[in-house]
Amino acid sequence: MCKLVSCIPNFSEGRDKGIVGALVDVAQNAPGAVLLDYSSDQDHNRSVLTLTGSPEGVAEAAFRLCREACRLIDMNKHEGVHPRMGAADVIPFVPVRNCTMPECVDLSKKLAGRIAGELGIPCYLYEESCTAENRRDLASVRRGGFEGMPQKLLLDGWAPDFGERQIHPTAGVTAVGARHPLIAFNVNLGTGDIRIAKKIAKAVRGSSGGLKYCKAIGVRLESRGIVQVSMNLVNYQETPVFAAFDAVCSEAGRLGVAVAGSEIIGLTPANALAGCAAHYLKLEGFDCSKQILENRIPDIY
What we know:
By secondary structure, this protein is an alpha+beta fold. The protein folds into two domains: about 5-180, Formiminotransferase-cyclodeaminase, Chain B, domain 1 (2-Layer Sandwich), CATH 3.30.990; about 185-270, 2-Layer Sandwich (Alpha-Beta Plaits). It has ten helices and eleven strands. Strands 1, 2, 3, 4, 5, 6 and 7 form a seven-stranded mixed beta sheet that branches. Strands 9-10-8-11 form a four-stranded antiparallel beta sheet. A hairpin with a 4-residue loop joins strand 3 and strand 4. Helix 2 (about 55-70) runs parallel beside helix 3 (about 100-120). The longest helix has 19 residues, at about 100-120. The chain starts with a strand and ends with a helix.
C-alpha cells in the first residue's frame, strides 16, 4: 500500500479573502497532494489548511504554499489574537498510513532546509523533529512573536536550525516539525471579559497543573463580542476532547459564566468524537475499533 502523510500548515492571514484564496489555489493544484480542508478566522487572523498525499507530494505542496505566503503576507501589518512569528507560521507533518514518524522527521528537515535556502526564511525544528529540548514545544519556539524574533534569534541557544540569525523582513520565521495528531478545539464563553477566559485557560492547561496534554490560551473574539478558550489537544487518547470540554465547563460554571458553544478547527480523528459519544451516552463496553462502521470496512475489503 502507498505511503500517506498529512500536513497542516498554519498561515498568518484569515481576513483577506484574496490571499486565502491564492493559498487554497496553490494547495488544490499541487501534484501528489489533496487539500482535504481549510478554515479561516478573522479574530485569530489565521488560516489552517489540511493536505494529505505521498510524502514527496505533500512536502512539495508545503513548500509552494510557504513560497506563496512569503510573497503575499507582510507580517509587519499583521494583527490577530493568535500567537504567531511568521507568514507560514508552522508546518507540521503527521504520519497517516505506512509511514513512520522518523520519515516525517526527515521530511520536515528537508523542507526546513529548502525554505531557508531558497526563500531566506529562518526555520526552527519542533516537536519530534527538535534538535534540543527547549525547542520541542511550539509555544517556547514562538514565544516573543514576530516582533520579538529579531532579538531572540541572537540569544544563546536560539540560533535557527536552518538559515541566518535574522528574520525574513516580511515573512518572519517558520517552525517545521513532525508530530502526532493534534486536535484544535475551542470553547466559546458567554462573556466579553478576557480575564475570565485567561483564568479558565490557566486552570485547564497542562503547564499550569491542569490537563496533561492540553495547551490553552484565552483570547477575545472582537467580531462576536465574546471570549474563547483556545486549546490544542496534543494527545487526545490521554486527554480526550470531552475531558477538555468538561474542564472548561466546570471552571466557567464556578465563575458564573455560560458556555456558548465549541468548535474544532480543521480535521479530527473519528475515534476522538466517538469517544465523546461513548462518554456522554455512557455506553457500556463500547470499542471504537470494533463498533464504528468505518473502522471495520478495511477488515472486509
